[in-house]
Amino acid sequence: MSSADNLFQPSQDDADDATVIAAAIRCIDDFTDRFNARDLAGMDALLHFPHIILSGEQLVVWDAPGNLPTSFFDDLARTTGWAKSTYQRKDPVLVSPRKVHLLVQYTRDRADGSVASHHRNLWIVTSENGRWGIKQRSY
Question: How is domain 14-138 classified at the architecture level of CATH?
Answer without folding.
Answer: Roll (3.10)
